[in-house]
Predict the structure of Cu/Pi carrier.
Amino acid sequence: MLPSTQALSALKATQKPFIASSVVEKKPFVAHSTIEVNSPRYFYTCAAGGVLACGLTHYLMTPVDMLKCRMQVNKSLYSGVFDGFKKVASAEGIRGLYLGGAPTLLGYSLQGMGKYGFYEYFKYLYGGFIGDEAAAKYKTMLYLSSSASAEFIADIMLCPMEALKVKMQTSATPFATSFLGGIRKINAAEGLNGFYKGLTPLWLRQIPYTMVKFATFEKTVEAIYKNVLSKPKDQYSKTQQLGVTFAAGYFAGIFCAIVSHPADTLVSKLNNVAKAEGESTGAIAVRILKDLGFKGVWAGLTPRIFMIGTLTALQWFIYDSFKVQTGLPTTGAAAAPKKE
């Protein structure tokens, strides 16, 4: 027997649209984890997320990074990013585009571990020093001081691999045929100083970069939930929260690239310039800056904006995705929406 018209109408009224219930995730995401926030296990988890976020993304962007470094050392080498891709791929293939990939992966994995793990630790530590009321009132200063402290440590972990990466990517003739061969060559020629002579310029590049990266990201996340979206953060789904993470990350990355670019140019040149007898690292840096001039320190900015914007967005997305998989909340304190 066929159902009656009234029965069909009643059945239709009880059904939910397939798209809303099965395809689009609308269930609010509320963090629930066995990991206690601000416990040692929490900091280790954030450090592990940082390894994935920084190591994988920097390795992915190795071709752009290599072209950027070469253009900083010799601005007439390529007419632009696409010209560089074409010339390198034609002469050296995919392997040539990923020159320096091994030290990039290792170095930025270590840096990410220090950057994200210590950021969360210092945010908790400094917040405890000044108290909850002051921490809430001076949030931006808390973000800036915590990220600067974390990056100071992270760069010590990164510097040896950054030195090897730049030498491999910018030397006129192949610097080394292997990762270990490059390590041995630097050590034989300059000893420990060869790995750390770029540390101060690296701090000058990375500490402002990271301060902007974390503070701008946190403030942007807060602004999106407060001024663009209509509900508190915990009323949005996991997918929606991660979408906010990616958008805020890209916005922060653009500012990061601009703020840190002159120091990035100096790092690239410093690891590629011969040191005169008795010349200090500071003297070499002054000599390089004089040779480059104001215009020269901004060489390669366009590919770096693309690279850092993409990197920063992907890093925050991977980091927060990892946290979500462990049941932890996404990064960024959501302010209550504005009252009309």
The domain at 36-325 is CATH 1.50.40.10 (Mitochondrial carrier fold). Residues 11-24, 334-340 have pLDDT under 50 and may be disordered. The chain has one domain: 36-325.
